[in-house]
Write a structure and sequence with these properties.
Layout: H1 2-16, H2 20-39, H3 42-45, E1 48-49, E2 61-62, H4 63-76, H5 120-124, H6 134-137, H7 139-154, E3 195-200, E4 204-212, E5 227-228, E6 231-239, E7 242-248, E8 251-253, E9 286-292, E10 295-301, H8 318-329, H9 353-376, H10 401-409, E11 421-424, H11 428-439, E12 444-453, H12 460-464, H13 471-480, E13 482-485, E14 505-510, E15 514-520, H14 529-540, E16 544-549, E17 567-573, E18 578-585, E19 600-602, H15 606-622, H16 631-646, E20 647-648, H17 652-660, H18 701-721
Parallel strand pairs: 12-15, 12-16, 16-17
Antiparallel strand pairs: 1-2, 3-4, 3-11, 4-6, 5-8, 6-7, 9-10, 11-20, 13-14, 14-15, 17-18, 18-19
Length: 722
């Protein structure tokens, strides 16, 4: 809370100041705030903060909420603090009996200049004029953006499953890409039809790759057994905080259940021969056979029962049956005694019997002709409905189909995103800069040398040939960091090799913001002159040296001859597990801590305190380098350079065309025929079969160019005529 209030108090005056060190002070406070946030438990950060002011008590806000507000102000300017909703907290809110934020300070001296003209190192450096670039003017904004992205990506889940040495993804565009056989980024990627490069908000590089899903895993390993496609979409994002890779799969729903019986199909057939039935008597019992659900059911129907749709057969007339039922159950309704209601009445007097027979014969003849026509053409395909089959799933023939689908769903292909979503120019320079960007560390890195001096050793050779030390020394080295295997270590190497020429293991320490590797003299081989020379080169080039001395005399700086070694932290064992600290530094090196010259430290906290002092000493030495840039400033500069040099301004039509087909492809990869990109060899279209569906034309570049020029000539001719 004190850091938040201090940054809020200093930010307005710092933005207006032209002195770079004022801005560096706020940057240091932001990085210190980041370290505190990552060290505190998340429960503490989410606790509500109650300010002393009356107005602040009305709205309850957490510490993390205030942190993001002050970071927002650092990115967009202190003028955002004028809005009460975006004001984090002030120093007066923290006033209490135990803490006075406005305590008067006395006896303060002006700090010594960092670049002393009389120092030994400054005399070897060429004078460099201060360059006021846009990057330097935005020091606070870049640092605040770095803190925001770091908190979003790593707060509450560091270290990840890859281990503390892995902060960002190691996946590249050529991995799992069946159109690229190279082991690194190569121009072969530009000919792949399944990959496209984008720029988002002029700050983030996005690569979209369509890859084949795992066949032996349910749902391709991504869908947890749900029904999905046989291709996945891989998104590789490079931003200020690092590189991240995500695999996505389209999910259709639960998988189809196996073992279901096929639906039973019923076919109706007409009887070609009908036997005349004698009209049953009024009390006759009729026997019906009805098929329901595949079962044959027999039941008896009497005329005394009401005729329903379930009891009436197809050849029976419903009205005739109903009239017969009324005559049986209600004889008083009969118009003529003894004659059922379904028996036709005699012909009218005005119509002769011959006329009536002619009408009946005409109706029967028409009925007979219609019946014969149906029986004759019943099996004709034109006389019956075509059976409707279930459509076969269509397999997209484009190698970029699912990427295009995902981008469309996310709204990246819309008009609204044209100002913030662009294509990248594909050339070899882009690949070189991407490789260079991926090789940069996303954390602060330090390399520190550790020496062991046994009793009586006062020369370089005897010190460098030590292969081990006392138990107290080994315990101290084990407390500096954990041992990592150099052959498979994926973090900061500090110049050490993976071929075992510089040792098998070494102590390594990492947080989400810093990496430290220790060049321990007793871990490196010294069995030959070449090994000693290589050991001395690694140890001597380090600017901070930790010396564990068990000699009775004080350690002298010139024992290990080197132009570096600007800071020496010498440890002398004492009695009762206490240790004396001697710090030797060159005059131009600014102050650092927490240990100081002459300190006495308990052995329990010795490794932690020495490691923190060595890291701060390395930071102090780096601050002496003219125009030195932190890791995040360097990464932001690389990203800005890539965007400026390789962003391809296109019209909406050209952008849509390149998203639809990133690159024309003429043949399938040899190991992916039939399975990727989801088309069979027989379905591969030829030059005469291309109809502009979803597949790029396989014509040769010269042919396509000539055809395109012909179309252009035709269009220009028609334009002249019009």
């Amino acid at each position: 809370q004190i850091l938040i209030a201090t940054i809020t108090h200093l930010l307005p005056s710092t933005e207006a100041s032209s002195y770079e060190m004022d801005k560096r002070l706020v940057v240091s406070l932001l990085l210190c705030l980041l370290d505190w946030i990552m060290a505190l438990p998340l429960k503490t950060l989410l606790q509500p903060f109650h300010a002393t002011g009356a107005e602040s008590d009305k709205t309850e806000k957490s510490v993390l909420n205030c942190i993001y507000k002050v970071l927002h102000g650092c990115v967009y300017g202190a003028q955002s603090f004028s809005n009460p909703r975006y004001f984090p907290m002030s120093l007066s809110d923290l006033a209490s009996v135990d803490y006075d934020p406005f305590m008067h300070l006395e006896s303060l001296k002006e700090p010594e200049p960092l670049h002393s003209p009389d120092s030994e190192r400054s005399s070897k450096l060429q004078p460099v004029t201060e360059v006021k670039t846009q990057m330097q003017h935005g020091l606070i904004s870049i640092a605040a953006r770095t803190v925001i992205t770091h908190l979003v990506n790593h707060l509450g889940h560091y270290p990840m499953s890859g281990g503390p040495a892995m902060l960002t993804s190691q996946v590249c565009e050529n991995h799992d890409n069946h159109y690229s056989e190279s082991t690194e980024l190569s121009p072969e990627l530009f000919e792949s039809p399944n990959i496209q490069f984008f720029v988002l908000n002029n700050t983030t590089l996005v690569s979209c790759i369509q890859i084949r899903s795992e066949e032996n895993m349910p749902g391709g390993g991504l869908s947890a057994g749900l029904a999905s496609a046989n291709s996945n979409v891989r998104i590789i994002v490079r931003d200020l905080s690092g590189k991240y890779s995500w695999d996505s799969a389209i999910l259709y729903g639960p998988p189809p259940v196996s073992g279901l019986s096929e639906p039973t199909s019923f076919m109706l057939s007409l009887s070609h021969q009908e036997k005349p039935e004698e009209p049953p008597t009024s009390n006759e019992c009729l026997e019906d056979t009805t098929v329901k659900d595949g079962l044959s059911l027999q039941f008896k129907r009497f005329r005394e029962t009401v005729p329903t749709w379930d009891t009436i057969r197809d050849e029976e007339d419903v009205l005739d049956e109903l009239l017969q039922y009324l005559g049986v159950t209600s004889p008083e309704c009969l118009q003529r005694t003894g004659i059922s209601l379904n028996i036709p009445a005699p012909q009218p007097v005005c119509i002769s019997e011959k006329q009536e027979n002619d009408v009946i014969n005409a109706i029967l003849k028409q009925h007979t002709e219609e019946k014969e026509f149906v029986e004759k053409h019943f099996n004709d395909l034109n006389m019956k409905a075509v059976e409707q089959d279930e459509p076969i799933p269509q397999k997209p023939q484009s190698a970029f189909y699912y990427c295009r689908l995902l981008l469309s769903i996310l709204g990246m292909n819309s008009w609204d995103k044209r100002r913030s979503f662009h294509l990248l120019k594909k050339n070899e320079k882009l690949l070189r800069e991407l490789r260079n960007l991926d090789s940069r560390q996303c954390r602060e890195t330090h390399k520190i040398a550790v020496f062991y001096v046994a009793e009586g050793q006062e020369d370089k050779h005897s010190i460098l040939t030590n292969t081990g030390g006392s138990q107290a020394y080994e315990d101290f080295v084990a407390g500096l960091g954990w041992e990592v295997n150099l052959t498979n270590h994926c973090g900061f190497m500090g110049g050490l090799q993976k071929n075992k020429s510089t040792g098998l293991t070494t102590p390594y320490f990492a947080t989400s913001t810093v990496e430290v590797i220790f060049h321990v003299s007793t871990r490196m081989p010294s069995d030959s002159d070449d090994s000693l020379t290589k050991k001395l080169r690694h140890l001597g080039n380090d600017e901070v040296h930790i010396v564990w001395s068990e000699h009775t005399r004080d350690y002298r700086r010139g024992i290990i001859p080197t132009e570096f070694g600007d800071v020496l932290i010498v440890i002398y064992p004492m009695k009762n597990h206490m240790f004396s600290i001697q710090i030797m530094k060159k005059p131009e090196v600014p102050f650092f801590g927490p240990l100081f010259d002459g300190a006495i430290v308990n052995g329990k906290v010795l490794p932690i305190m020495v490691r923190a002092t060595a890291i701060n000493a390395s930071r102090a030495l780096k601050s002496l380098i003219p125009l030195y840039q932190n890791f995040y400033e360097e990464r932001a500069r690389y990203l800005q350079t890539i965007v400026q040099h390789h962003l391809e301004p296109t019209t909406f039509e050209d952008f849509a065309a390149q998203v639809f087909s990133p690159a024309p492809y003429h043949h399938l990869p040899s190991d992916a025929v039939g399975s990727y990109p989801e088309i069979l060899p027989s379905e591969t279209p030829t030059a005469t079969q291309v109809d502009g569906a979803d597949l790029a034309s396989p014509m040769s570049p010269r042919t396509s160019k000539s055809r395109m020029s012909m179309k252009l000539r035709r269009s220009s001719g028609s334009a002249n005529k019009s």
